[in-house]
Amino acid sequence: MEETRTKVLIIGSGPAGCTAAIYASRANLKPVLLEGEQPGGQLTQTTEIENFPGYVNGVQGLQMMSELRDQAMRFGTEIRPRTIVKVDFSVRPFKCEDERGDIYLADTVIISTGASAKYLGLPDEDKYKGLGVSACATCDGFFYRNRVVAVVGGGDTACEEALYLSTLAKKVYMIVRKDYLRASKVMQQRVNDKENIEVLYRCNTVGLFGEEGVEGAKLVRDVESDNPEYFDVAIDGFFLAIGHKPNTDVFAGQVELDEQGYIKTATPSTRTNIEGVFAAGDCADPIYRQAVTSAGTGCKAALDAERFLMDHNEL
Ligand code: NDP
Asked: Which of 33, 103, 219, 251 is the most exposed, having the fewest neighbouring CB atoms within 10 Å of its CB?
């Protein structure tokens, strides 16, 4: 068992974690960043990113995350391919344990473990990932101009995604398993007012098909009735919007989470209910979930950690 002592431990390597690392290392805090199970985070799953400021011609998700990582290393961040599986935030230094049993003793911790989009669990979702299946309309919608897409889900996110896509795509289907939308009234109204959005109620997706990418979805209406109706819709893109799950299970009982599992922070700061533990990015953000907002809170978390250490004469 190896033991590492650090002033700042950053857990997670998406835009929030990397930005926190850039700031903390430039402040000479010599942070240790643990990459987690998905080094680079959700952006490594997308193709081109066109809405991150500064990239005039867009950038591949993998490339951007690799550059952010290099930028953090340039100033002395130590990056390790490890995942935290257990934490004890009851006393300082905080104690975190990785999957190999190695221990990190940290004066401050920045949690930036992100969130994961929920998928239906169909094998076809994996088969067509990046080939028509997406969980982010803002990221990928642009590639479906004048084409036909489907959004799965009936909540506010699904409506928002469908409305956004309706400005680009020729036609948007919403695949909703109930006979009503769960979304707020105002969102429902907006969806209903859009001529190119068609809501398919009481429908579930059973599969996708297509030669080199998605060309259609196989649906079933009234799956639990005596008379389920099976039919196909021709689509070019299949967007999941059935919710996100913050990657915070390991912190349950250690920092305060909301009912959905997001880490509660004392906004506008990134402070959690434990002094010296900060949270940044999607693990603490049920609303915006953008790369640039995550990077912004990562910056704030590093500044908050630095100030905390200064206040405790631990710089
Ligand atoms: P929600 O949990 O509100 O909605 C999820 C939707 O996905 C529901 O319609 C649900 O169906 C459906 N769903 C879940 N699992 C499946 C499945 N396996 N198969 C088919 N459908 C499924 O999540 P959201 O991400 O939409 O919203 C999360 C929170 O964020 C909410 O509180 C929302 O109000 C808020 N939000 C607010 C926004 C705003 O105000 N502008 C924008 C975005 C989000 P069912 O209804 O049958 O359970």
From this structure: 103
What digits encode the pLDDT tens for the residues 215-262?
Answer: 999 999 999 999 999 999 999 999 999 988 999 999 999 999 999 999
pLDDT digits (tens, 9 = 90+) for 22-36: 999 999 999 999 999
Written as six digits, the tokens of 135 are 């969980």
Q: Compute the distance between CA of residue 247 and CA of residue 261 in angstroms, rounded to an integer.
A: 8
- How far, in Å, from the CA of 243 to the mean position of ligand 1? 5
Closest CA to 68 of 295, 285, 283: 295
**For the CA of 121, the nearest atom of ligand 1:** 18
* Active-site residue (options: 18, 136, 159, 203): 136
Q: Which positions ≥6 away from 86 have C-beta within 8 Å? A: 96, 97, 250
What end-to-end distance do the CA atoms of the chain give, in Å? 27
Tell me if 5 sits within 8 A of 25, measured CB to CB.
Answer: no
Nearest Cα to Cα of residue 255 among 281, 280, 279: 279
Residue 179 class from Cβ within 10 Å (0-12 exposed, 13-18 middle, 19+ buried)? exposed
pLDDT the model gives residue 175: 98
139 is known as an active-site residue: yes
